[in-house]
Amino acid sequence: MTAKGNLAEPVRAELGADGRLLSADAPLIRLNRQCGGIDGGQLAIPQLADLVRLSKRLGMNLSRSAVAANEESTIEMWVKTRIPGMNGPGSVGIEITEWQESEAPAEDSFSLQRQRDLDRLNGRGSVRTDASLRIMSIFLPGRPEIAAGMVGQMLWECFETLPGGQGTGVADAIEERQPIRNQLMQRTGQASEKYAFSGQPLIDGGGIFSGYQFSLEREAATEAEAADGAKDRAGLIGDSLFGQQLAPALRQPLDKIIANAETISNQLVGPLRGNYSDYANDIAAAGRHLLSLVDDLSDLEAIEKANFTVAADDIDLVDLAHRTAGLLAVKSADHQIRIDVPPEEREAPAKGEFRRVLQILVNLVGNAIRYSPDGSVIKMQVRQDADTISLLVTDQGDGIAPEDQAKIFEKFERLGRSGDGGSGLGLFISRRLAEAMDGSLTVESQVGKGTTFTLTLPARQK
Amino acid sequence: MADRDSQNRPQYGRELLQRAANAARSSVSVADDLSAALSPRSDVRFSDRMLSFSRQFLQSVVSHVEKEVCKTAIEHFEAADETLAAIAGSDRVHSYQLLEQAGALENRQLLKYVFIQAQKVELSSRLVQKISRSELESILTRYLDHDNKPIAEAAMQFLVAQGREGTTSDTVLATRESLPAEILHGLIWPISAALAKLSGSGESQLIAASRKILAEHDEGQSAARCAERLAQLLNASDDPAIQSPHPLLDGVELFVARLASMARLNAGQVYTFTAEERMARLIVTLKALGIEPQSALSIHASLDGNGESLTAASYQEIDAQDARHLLQSWTLDPAYQAAKHALDIPISGQTDR
């Protein structure tokens, strides 16, 4: 989070002849990271990179205004370039004499963060553009090296529209600032790399369009790849009907059912009688339940596959606890449940796959919300041991009897409960995922006194 | 007499031959000229005054740049050519004709810049008919004592730059300092080449002088950039005493810069809006920004030169959402907008869909 308002001191940066950011003041480093840049890498703030390129091409110093944006703020700057910079011929110096931040999109940073976490949880990518459709940040699952090179380029330079998706042309939809739904696009010149784009226009506090936030889902390029992809997702059953055919075939229509039901229930296309809106809500809820069942079954197959592996990302359990609370904020608010998280400044560095740990925590806190009384509190706490680090999720629910505590980690075990939206697979999957990351998932509970689930992972040396 | 005639005849003959050769070359484009005159492709109509100003302004810019290149070549790089020395001390333009014949001035970016200067003068001259010059000059000093130091400093720089460029009156002096970097870069090399051709020597000194001028150029000193900077600060300020942009309060240049900053357009776009028929895009921009009807009417009246009036009823009839959509489409990357127009894809708000 950068400081709001006008910075009194100029913000400076030096770029080498190869365009790499050699040094910069803190606000610029932060903005560069938020735009997808890395320290010591190419300048990733598109508006500044444009000015630097122009300055180098002309061989002249420039003085211009520039407006950049991250997901929290719009930053208006007065930028001066100086060539050569302090690092010899070809280098460029930047001095920003006014740095004024203001709240940017009406869609607040919290919901953008939440959407991005949801995308990553579901294995989807995301793209954020500015008002001129220049890519500000991008996450392509499994393609970080390609994504880094796209920051600063126009969306149309990186992706080509393909037939399919929504009826009206995507260019017209963007022109009219309409939401985009399942528009098929391919990475420019890469026919084998197709994505379904869905996105919303972002409108800032002044009512001005400030860009798009897209979610994107990789499409299988060929039938063979589709089958391979399904196999990857469905390791256990392998050649089974579900793994190869049903899961991918079910997801797409379920997505459409949920999206259309939500459109109807939110009355986006016109007013409805109250009970019709409720019916649409029920349809969307049922669709989401089916979709989570499909996801659980796919995960079940995947984790039972002999060669199932997880990535060892550098993660922070406090950060993940905050993201989990963000993802489930609406659900907990519906039940007036408060989620207490560790203080943001506390650090809990661990090793584990970001997406899988988030999945475990969403499952644990989701269960806690489901089985806790309205108005209660769910606590997330961190515990550091010698080589491990743990996150504890404690609720104020009815608790679990000692004889049932082992059973809850078994497949399809519901302890006699039904109709609450659960599949009986979540804890089984979560424990297997924790073990795959060299960790563990345990439970402690007393009937009538609540339950504590403890996720333990290898600690990471900072 | 007969002797004199016979002496002049060869020169006359050579001149006629040269004219004939030039005519053959230039008349190839006669159809293009007629087509542009009969079927202009833009909504903008050029008055004789604007055309005259544009020609003079362009000549003046070339004159300033060529003079400075020659001076720098002589003072810093020991150029000793007599022609260059004469140009350095002359108030007349020397390379213009050569550049014009070579088509070196038919540069879209340069011509657009000249058009913006012409429109700026046009608007300023309309404004001084509605407000006294002394009033206009006094209101421009009102930010000098502002409590916010950056605003006061930026206002002072703007005032100084305006004084240098003469933009407080109804003209704009062409100076090298006032040129944006791209325009100076685009002009200085053809001018240097023309000077080398005219002088027949001193090429390396002219190149070195051009490089020095480019390296030392500070476009941040121009009135346009100073106005942009002040506009950015004023628009970001939460001081309730700072009023909405208005030509009668800010003058043309600052008003345009403030409106452009608020709408995320560039100043050139706003000047173009003011030159279009009925200033339709300017009105839509005001509506999209939520400018109150009375202010919008007053802004329109102070910039209008054709006696057309905007009524409160017609301003209120404009759908604010449609206006915002249109404004947003104008903020898109210019290359994208140009490609869309070239592909003839309907623009929202202009179709019968």
UniProtKB/TrEMBL annotation, chain A:
Record's keyword terms, sorted: Kinase, Phosphoprotein, Transferase, Two-component regulatory system
Highest taxon, organism lineage: Bacteria
EC number, as in UniProt: 2.7.13.3
One Pfam family, short name: HATPase_c
Cell cycle recorded as keyword: no
SMART domains for this protein: HATPase_c
Catalysed reactions, as listed in the record: ATP + protein L-histidine = ADP + protein N-phospho-L-histidine
Record flagged with keyword Transferase: yes
Domain spans labelled Histidine kinase: 245-461
GO molecular function annotations of the record: phosphorelay sensor kinase activity
Identification of the protein by name: histidine kinase
TrEMBL record, chain B:
UniProt xrefs under InterPro entries: DUF2336
Protein name: DUF2336 domain-containing protein
Native source species: Parasphingorhabdus marina DSM 22363
Lineage, highest ranks first: Bacteria, Pseudomonadati, Pseudomonadota, Alphaproteobacteria, Sphingomonadales
